Predict the structure.
Amino acid sequence: MSTAIADGRVMAGRYLRHVVRAPEEIVIYFSLPIMFVLVFGYVFGSGMSVPGGGGYREFLIPGVFVMTMLYGIGATATGIAVDAGRGVVDRFRSMPMARSALISGRVIADLARALLETAVLVVCGLLVGWRWHLGLGNVLAAIGLLLLLRLALSCAGVALGLAAPNPDTVATIVFPLAFPLSALSNVFVAPEMMPGWLGTISEWNPISATTTALRELFGNPGLGSDSWPAEHAMLLAVAWPVLLIAIFGPVSVRLYRRLGQ
Amino acid sequence: MIVAEELRKRYRGGQGTIALDGFRLDVPGGIVHGLLGPNGAGKTTAVRVLSTLLGFDSGRAEVAGADVVRQPGLVRERIALTGQYAAVDELLSGRQNLVLFGRLHHLRPRDARRRADELLERFGLTDAAGRSAKDYSGGMRRRLDLAASLIRRPQVLFLDEPTTGLDPRSRNQVWDAVRGLVTEGTTVLLTTQYLEEADQLAGRISVVDAGRIVAEGTPDELKSALGADRLEVVIRESDRLGDAAAVVARIAGGRPDTDLDRRAVRVPLMGDRVETLTVTLQALREAGITVANVGIHQPTLDEAFLHLTGRRAAMPADPAPPPAAPPPSSPAASSSAAPARASASSEVTA
């Protein structure tokens, strides 16, 4: 067990060194949420209204945090698919290291990245006028929920990366998967403003659950809805990720075991 | 050191290719054992099975005293694998790679760094230590890969086509490194498509075909089984081919092949080659036969291989027999030789 933890840490260090040695990837990666803040916050935002009143950018920023976690799935899946397609995984698998280390290392590294991304976005948010209103304890709880969601998405990303036939396929799968998930949520538009059935899908979307929970914790606007998922956002913001981990964790381990068979 | 008994492995999906079909191997410690065979013969599958990367359907395998199926962890502690494709992290530097693998071998950080520096030095990579592995040349990458396999001196090292695609200089460096290892007591299982590589490195060679061993022996034993180098004499007038064959048979011994299309006589070259060559040419001249060309050829892997499996005799008209050919039934001495396909011959020097 201690070997598994030590090997996972070494492997996490490997993935973080990749970020340091090829920083352009993370810069490109940051450009997307920042662009969303600017485009939605300033261009479309002027035409948007927030249910219950309040500034649109205050409404938007918690969702951008969540969306950034979601798009991290691409980096995870690509990284794993690149590894899986190269001989280096054969070396790992022929070494007396913990078999789980490749996956746990990637997940740990993803969480470290998620912290960095969150820090950058907090600064961006503050610059465009977003504030938290309910104390530092709530901020920490919000970050905890973000990391939990990222952990779940990371597991899903690993599974996707291992299932994909090659790294190029990952890129073509991730965007059509992640884009509807972020668009069909309450990140940009309140579900009450969508046509009935779309609104329902959007309310039950895991992305919406964490977003609503963050708005509650930060004291940001947009909490008008009295639907069940909106009322129990905090519960869903924990339950959804736990469910995803319970599914994709074992799937990832299985796929990794079967790699190269 | 390596024992394989009746290994069978069929890949799922596709046509369910049978990769190993009763594969047997018994390699004692401290030598280089070569697995020689063409692409698709099952060499890589055998290595992947023995290095615990791949499961198999039936049979038994033991490596460095541990059972591959029941004690894979123990096997992994005692082996290292250097595959066809350099198994290093492309994004990391050479040094970072070796430190990483050292840490995953559970060396302490300081020891991992020290071992990395030793290995970089030993493989002539110190100057390139800080550069990303993706910027390394093919030879450097393969050396880094080999260095990574030696972080903890393995009891058994699997080398899967270690010099495929390398220039002669890098190839020699890899060979030197392998020889060095064996003197330190490591057992090496080397797969190769090149007769010369097996000849250079291996104390014993197993020839693999269609997932099983079809011949085994020392390089010398195999070479004589494969047929030695051939003397080929091309004459000017095709109607003298029979006479030429008689002369060649008398001087060089053996039973010559004749090729009417090319007006060539070929015979295995035994004993003193220069003497045989000189006397043969002289005898031909005395018989009034004009020689247009003369040459000495080592059998290519293909020829050697066909010779071993006897398939060439079975199909004189087909230069590239399919793997599922029936066993030989026609007379052994065919009058047609399979054209060389393998690239080995061009690199071979006698």
Notes: The domain at 228-298 of chain B is CATH 3.30.70.920 (Alpha-Beta Plaits). The first strand of chain B starts at residue 2 and ends at 10. The radius of gyration of chain B is 24 Å.
